[in-house]
């Protein structure tokens, strides 16, 4: 990035351990922002799904990219921990919090896509809902007053898909469409206070977990196309991160409030590139596949 449009801005990325959260946090740092990177997994506390990524690593990547990364271990399902986090940001940044990104999900390992809603374990399904919806509500509840007090700010919900079409699993569908509706509701409550709320979605994500699933790395990800031809149009988590940087840098951002925006749609408007120099357009690709199918 030749310019740093977010120098002096303060961001919170809730769920910054891996995937989109990490890509978003690092991209905000690349743009010059101070980024609080939160999550449960640290170098001292192993991931409950046995992944190696940590918020400490993410914060260091933010700093290396040109921003200031600050890792804080937070369970966003615990209101007391989130309240303490926001109080710390308030103290350290003199009340400034410009960007909040709610990206907590982490439920991919618990989904059994073939199961109907009455099958499987009800406690697993309820935990998915708590971890992926409650956390967003709790974080925004405590963060929004800082923004309202200053009459400015941006709250972003990260979902999957920019329509209300069914997403293949009832609990997953409930979560991802609920996140979209959270953005709608927050917009209605915040629109008279100078704060913008909206949702964003990536396309076919080339996350750490997906790379592992296909048995490839970022260096040879194209080898996975032989297993899944659709992977040819995949994107890294940094693509959505750069979309969010573009949104946060747009002086007319309020015009996008309450809606869900896709990485490919924002790419067409703002012209950013993925870290590999590509401009994948999952929406156009998917539409073409449907036409051919």
Highest CATH level, the class: Alpha Beta
**From the helix content, strand content and strand pairing, which structural class follows?**
alpha/beta
* CATH topology (level 3) name: Rossmann fold
Major sheet strand order: 3-2-1-4-5-6-7
What is the ordering of alpha helices and beta strands?
EHEHEHEHEHEHHEHH
CATH superfamily: NAD(P)-binding Rossmann-like Domain
Instruction: Please tell me the overall pLDDT.
Output: 95
Do you know the CATH architecture? 3-Layer(aba) Sandwich
Please estimate the helix content.
40-55%
**Radius of gyration from CA coordinates:** 18 Å
How many DSSP H or I helices?
Answer: 9
Number of structurally distinct domains: 1
- End-to-end separation in angstroms reads 39 Å
What does this structure look like?
By secondary structure, this protein is α/β, with parallel strands linked by helices. The protein has one domain: Rossmann fold. The chain is 43% helix and 13% strand. The chain contains nine helices and seven strands; from the N terminus they run E-H-E-H-E-H-E-H-E-H-E-H-H-E-H-H. It has helices spanning 19-30, 55-65, 79-92, 122-150, 170-190, 208-214, 237-248, 263-270, 282-292; strands at residues 10-14, 34-39, 68-73, 99-102, 153-158, 195-201, 260-262. It has a seven-stranded parallel sheet with strand order 3-2-1-4-5-6-7, with helices on both faces. Helix 5 (170-190) links the parallel strand 5 and strand 6 (195-201). Helix 1 packs parallel to helix 2, helix 1 packs across helix 7 and helix 7 crosses helix 8. The longest helix is centred in the middle third of the chain and has 29 residues, at 122-150. The model has no long low-confidence stretch (mean pLDDT 95). InterPro entries: NAD(P)-bd_dom_sf, SDR_fam. This is Short-chain dehydrogenase/reductase SDR.
């Amino acid at each position: 990035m030749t310019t740093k449009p977010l120098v002096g801005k303060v961001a919170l990325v809730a769920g910054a351990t891996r995937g989109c959260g990490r890509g978003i946090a690092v991209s905000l740092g690349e743009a010059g922002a101070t980024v609080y990177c939160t999550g449960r997994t640290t170098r001292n506390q192993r991931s409950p799904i046995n992944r190696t990524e940590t918020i400490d690593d993410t914060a260091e990547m933010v700093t290396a990219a040109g921003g200031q990364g600050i890792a804080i271990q937070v369970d966003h399902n615990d209101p007391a921990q989130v309240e303490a986090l926001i109080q710390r940001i308030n103290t350290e940044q003199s009340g400034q919090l410009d960007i909040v990104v709610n990206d907590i999900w982490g439920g991919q390992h618990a989904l059994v896509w073939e199961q109907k809603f009455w099958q499987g374990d009800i406690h697993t399904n309820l935990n998915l809902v708590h971890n992926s919806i409650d956390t967003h509500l709790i974080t925004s509840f405590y963060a929004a007053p800082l923004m309202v007090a200053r009459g400015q700010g941006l709250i972003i919900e990260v979902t999957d898909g920019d329509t209300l079409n069914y997403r293949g699993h009832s609990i997953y569908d409930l979560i991802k469409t609920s996140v979209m509706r959270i953005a709608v509701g927050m917009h209605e409550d915040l629109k008279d206070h100078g704060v913008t709320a909206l949702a964003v979605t990536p396309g076919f994500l080339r996350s750490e977990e997906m790379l592992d699933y296909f048995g490839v790395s970022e260096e040879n990800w194209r080898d996975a196309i032989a297993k899944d031809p659709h992977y040819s149009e995949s994107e890294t988590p940094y693509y959505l991160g750069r979309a969010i940087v573009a949104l946060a840098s747009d002086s007319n951002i309020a015009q996008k409030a309450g809606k869900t925006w896709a990485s490919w749609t924002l790419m067409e408007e703002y012209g950013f590139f993925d870290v590999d120099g590509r401009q994948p357009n999952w929406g156009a690709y998917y539409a073409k596949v449907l036409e051919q199918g």
